[in-house]
Design a protein that fits this description.
The protein has 218 residues and is of the alpha+beta class. It contains four helices and eleven strands; from the N terminus they run αββαββββααβββββ. The strands form two sheets. Strands 1-2-6-5-4-3 form a six-stranded antiparallel sheet. A five-stranded antiparallel sheet has the order 10-9-8-7-11, with no helix packed on it. The longest helix is centred in the middle third of the chain and has 22 residues. It is globular, with a radius of gyration of 17 Å.
Length: 218
């Protein structure tokens, strides 16, 4: 998709792979990619009038949550920065990469399979007796993503942020955050700031804004 972005392909194109041999998650982690799951990517051409490009992570997240919830209503929860959980186990992930004036959004969803040997619990829709083909799931996702991109452009980030918070684990949820520079921070989830960064309420009552890190539910 990055090569297509450089070639000038129009916004709105989606690519879907049946499987990946070198799938990647955040921070260069490998992504297990057996056939039957969703591996898809799209791109957004960032316009001068658009909100900050990084907030497309929120757009992708709310579109994905809406799509998953069509199959398992009331079960999926968003976790910052880019995960969707069911019963605390990871169902899917989102990866954003900048490519010139475009942002490439990669989305992986465990539809039929999920790994069992990772440091974080994972799950799949199949584990909840949902049988959905990737080509059918992505049709619903494409439509939802297009609507939320239009909302992001037309109404701004705050509408997206409020939708994200409404479908995340509740305020006060204990979190552990592993920061990129090494240390970890414990605190309580206190929403997102206007740019989509995580707000963590610390033990002394102060609020810390987290712009990058790995987040674990406690």
């Amino acid at each position: 998709m990055i090569a297509l972005a450089a070639s000038g392909v129009e916004e709105g194109i989606w690519l879907r792979a049946e499987r990946q041999t070198i799938g990647r998650g955040r921070l260069g982690r490998s992504w297990v990619s057996p056939p039957g799951n969703l591996y898809a990517s799209t791109l957004v051409r960032v316009r001068p009038s658009d909100p900050p490009a990084a907030t497309l992570a929120l757009v992708a997240a709310v579109a994905l949550e809406e799509t998953v919830s069509a199959y398992v209503p009331g079960m999926a929860l968003l976790k910052w920065p880019n995960d969707l959980l069911i019963d605390g186990a990871k169902l899917s992930g989102i990866l954003l990469e900048r490519a010139g004036e475009s942002v490439v959004i990669g989305i992986g969803v465990n539809l039929a399979h999920h790994p069992t040997d990772t440091d974080r619990r994972a799950t799949s829709l199949a584990a909840y007796n949902v049988a959905i083909a990737a080509e059918d799931f992505v049709e619903t996702l494409v439509e939802a993503f297009a609507r939320w991109v239009d909302c992001w452009r037309g109404q701004g980030v705050d509408v997206i942020r409020r939708r994200w918070v409404a479908n995340a684990h509740p305020a006060g949820t204990p979190l552990n955050v592993r920061l990129p520079e090494g240390p970890t921070v414990d605190g309580l989830f206190d929403g997102l700031d206007p740019d989509g960064a995580l707000i963590l309420r610390l033990a002394d009552g102060t609020r810390r804004v987290i712009h990058a890190g790995d987040v674990f539910l406690l």
